[in-house]
Amino acid sequence: MTGPVAPRIEADDEDQEVPLASLEQEPMVNGPIVASCLGLGATLNNLSKWLFAVLFGITVLWKHDAQALWASIGSVLNSLLSHILKRLLNQRRPVPTSRSDPGMPSSHAQSIFYIVTYTIITVIESFGKNGLTAALGGLLYALSCYFSWLRISQKLHTTHQVLVGATIGLGFSHFWFWLWNAIMFKAFESLFWVHFIVVLAAAVLCTGFLVYVLKYWILY
Predict the structure, then answer these.
(1) Is 175 within the bounds of a domain?
(2) Where is the Phosphatidic acid phosphatase type 2/haloperoxidase domain (predicted)?
């Protein structure tokens, strides 16, 4: 004896009867898969700040030059800019209970695109423009887009908030290194007081950022 059957579905040549039991099992099969994907997305989202912080740290330690100091200052200023814009725009997140602070722009996307742009600029300056650096740049930007999209999939930001954050991070990074190459590099090399201020600012801001990481990333 067979179980109950679903209504007949027309096929090309003949009608087929589909057991209801097989239809009822589909959500049970898909449920763990969906839950696993959501759990993986949440884990990667939580790890994203560490992954890109490590990428930035590796790049800075690899170069360990005046431009790396300038990049460190820019990274902290980029984060401060994001927090200032959040307060000024005061746009809530898609799910207000997810975070208490405003969501416009996405500080994650802004920091990610700043870091990746700096890394790509550094790699191109070191190895030139070629197929390998182009492939690496494309891969890094693809990863940036994916990890930024996770902020949307986890309901932490709207699409507009992420796009604005990514655009600001990308633009600020290009501006910051244009400023270095156009003005600050020569001043850093020729004027002691500029040299002193850049080194001091990098030390103070990076120390402040490390305190922030310890307080809000590790101990929070």
Answers:
(1) yes
(2) 87-181
